[in-house]
Amino acid sequence: MKIYSFIAALLFFTMAAAQDKQPYQLFNKNGKKTSYKNLLKASAGAEVVLFGEHHDNSFIHWLQLELTKDLAEKKPLILGAEMIERDNQPQLNKYLKGEINQKAFDTLARLWNNHKTDYKPLVDFAKENKLPFIATNIPRRYASMVYKQGLEALEKLTAEEKEWIAPLPIPYDASLPGYVAMLEMAGGHGGDNLPKAQAVKDATMAYFISRNMQADAVFIHYNGTYHSDNFEGINWYLNKYRPGVKVITIAAVSQKDVSKLEKEHLQKADFILVVDEDMTKTY
């Protein structure tokens, strides 16, 4: 009997030790550890949640889905994503209504290569629960126009094409740290139009979030973390289009050690999701 008790105790402590190694840790903006419970509570009290991601990180995609499911039990939801462009909203709506299947959706819309593994579960959750899913991003070809010719190039678009982007003229502040850092990282390549092409994406996503918000509902938006880090990007434009909007931002970072937030990531978001740098990538 004593041997069985010893084995049981050994198994318990072995499992406890194994549980100490975890793939992620949540922190608040000041670098203090926080919990998923606190993230869920804060998200349920927001009007908009900007969930910043690393596009290829399998764990982040899993947590996006889990947060979405849990939020749906607390508040009405609207979902939206950078990964589907505005002019593909009709095709997305047909898929959500069951009028076309996944194969047709793949054919008719410009979906990302990792859609089936990383974003289809979110879209399907919206479909199954009859929730709106908003394609928020500017069609890539127009962002490319800005990169090559500047924001002025958008004035040449037709009235229909302008419906797929934020209203012109696009507000733009070249001094925002995120856009300044983008220029520095690019080493001058692309010139001043590089951050402008980023800004027109941020503005368009923010505008269509603001247009599709509903009273007493939470709009949860999935985007590359750089689009909302440091309370800039989408967040900055949201406050232009809807002053005083209550936004919760989540930034994603990778670290070797998830137990302590590195100084460079302080103040990056309301919640900072630190994922082990060895986490499986989806592509």
Structure, explained:
With 283 residues, this protein is α/β, with parallel strands linked by helices. Helices cover 43% and strands 17% of the residues. The protein has helices at residues 2-19, 36-44, 58-72, 89-96, 102-108, 115-128, 140-149, 159-162, 177-186, 193-212, 234-241; strands at 24-28, 33-34, 48-53, 77-85, 133-137, 218-224, 247-255, 271-276. An eight-stranded mixed β-sheet has the order 2-1-8-7-3-6-4-5, sandwiched between helices. Strand 1 and strand 2 form a beta hairpin. The longest helix is centred in the C-terminal third of the chain and has 20 residues, at 193-212. It is globular, with a radius of gyration of 21 Å.
Keywords:
eight-stranded mixed sheet; disordered N terminus
- C-alpha Rg, in Å? 21 Å
Give the overall average pLDDT.
93
Give the oligomeric state.
Answer: single chain
Major sheet: order of its strands? 2-1-8-7-3-6-4-5
**Based on CA inertia axes, which overall geometry fits?**
globular
| Count of distinct strands | 8
**Uncertain runs with pLDDT below 50, 5 residues or more?**
1-18
Q: What series of H and E elements makes up the topology?
A: HEEHEHEHHHEHHHHEHEE
User: How far is it from the N-terminal to the C-terminal residue, by CA?
Assistant: 51 Å
Helical proportion?
40-55%
Biggest beta sheet summary: 8 strands, mixed
Strand content: 15-25%
Helical region count? Answer: 11
Tell me the structural class.
alpha/beta
